[in-house]
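Cast an eye over this sequence plus tokens and explain the fold to me:
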Amino acid sequence: MKNLKPIILLSEYQELRDLIKRNPNESKQLSEELDRAIVIKEEELNKKIIRVGSEVEFEVVKTKTKMKIQLVLPEESNLKAQKVSIFAPLGTALIGFSENDEVEWDMPGGKMLLKILKVSNEHLEI
């Protein structure tokens, strides 16, 4: 597995930093992930990079369990509707990565390897 860095759109990076300032106790992992991120401009954006609002299909490699979620801001979080907050460990793990990337992350149940199968951003504006 390559040591990949998340790729974050400059405008979203700034929005997430502002969100972290307002919620410092909930966002330590996200802040650390943004610290190591590669920040890009809109014209450099790959449509398959996971952003806030992205619909993502991924697989837990160990169990071969496939899941579909939408990555959202904390106030839009709704697990029954498969909307996962950017502050949740899963949301923080996925932000900034792309289709076919594998991401290892500390989840509440231990380290987990996730393979990103599909990313949809068609409904998002840049």
Observations:
- The chain has one domain: 7-120.
